[in-house]
Amino acid sequence: MDYIYLAEKRVSRLGFGMWPLSGLPKRPAWDEAIALIHWALDRGVSILDTADSYHLPDEPVGYGEVLVADALRQWGGRREDVLVATKGGRAVNPDGSRYCTGGPSQLTAAAEASRERLEVDIIDLYYFHRPDPEVPFAQSVEALAQLVDKGVIRTAGVSNVDRGQILVAKEILGESLVAVQNQYSFWFRSSESEIDLAADLGLAFFPWSPFGGPDRKSGVYEIGALAEVANYARASRHQTVLAWMLARYERMVPIPGTRRETALKDLLGAYDVKLDDLSLTALDGIVAQ
Question: Where residue 214 falls among pLDDT bands split at 50, 70, 90?
Fold first, then answer.
């Protein structure tokens, strides 16, 4: 298991994303989700990534946060060793579509509500989920800075952002900005520049949907170059993808999500996969459709 220091904690370089356990219609039952979170925690995973908008359209805000709080309350390990990251600034319409809520007062209220649902005195890492086209980005980030000053959140992150927005966030938040979370996979390579900037600034980079998202469940089995590298490395395709990401940048923290223990066990095996330079070069060249 590899670790980095983030938000004053030593945490694993693989996190566990809560979206499949909370935001998908075919999510597992509550107790099954709790058991899967415990399974991950017991094996060294120490980052749980959720959001207040991880819920179904017909239920209250914050299902994913309450799930995490319940899992940690029941867990027999050291709660203080787990970093919980959550997000605010998005909401769910009755039809399941999503919209931005990035106004300063909205973010402040959202963070305070998240803190209550997570049952913590201070949120370890709080992301602005997505820039709101109706609100100047700097105003939204200023709200995060005020949340840090008020002790509602310990550190801040920005998600679904470009280079310019990262620089604005860094200027406003300073050392309180610790992470960027963008989509990144073989199907979505446009965040390469943001990864490089995160590295220059010493920020952690959390790639979401590392396997292309729920619409591409079979996608990793359709890339010939990935299959060749995986076979050479004697690893699964999913392990190979994560190993490639871990090698991409020392503070890269993939946050895959799954509903199955067998899949989670496979993903954690990525730590043991060592890719040589030739393999990494081959993977770097993949741009999937």
Answer: confident
Is 184 considered catalytic here?
Answer: no
Q: Whole-prediction pTM value?
A: 0.96
Taking the domains of the chain in order of start, what are their residue ranges? 3-217+245-260
Instruction: Point out the catalytic residue in the list 5, 54, 99, 221.
Output: 54
The pair of structure tokens assigned to 142 is 């200023």
For 157-195, the pLDDT digits (tens) are 999 999 999 999 999 999 999 999 999 999 999 999 999
DSSP string covering the chain, please?
Answer: --EEEETTEEEESS-EE-HHHHTSTTPPPHHHHHHHHHHHHHTT--EEE--TT-S-TTS-TTHHHHHHHHHHHH-SS-GGGPEEEEEESEEE-TTS-EEE---HHHHHHHHHHHHHHHT-SSEEEEEE-S--TTS-HHHHHHHHHHHHHTTSEEEEEEES--HHHHHHHHHHHGGGEEEEEEE-BTTB-TTHHHHHHHHHHT-EEEEESTT--GGGTTGGGG-HHHHHHHHHHT--HHHHHHHHHHHH-TTB------S-HHHHHHHHGGGG----HHHHHHHHT----
**CATH top class, domain 3-217+245-260:** alpha beta
d(CA 90, CA 130): 7
CB 14 within 8 A of CB 268: yes
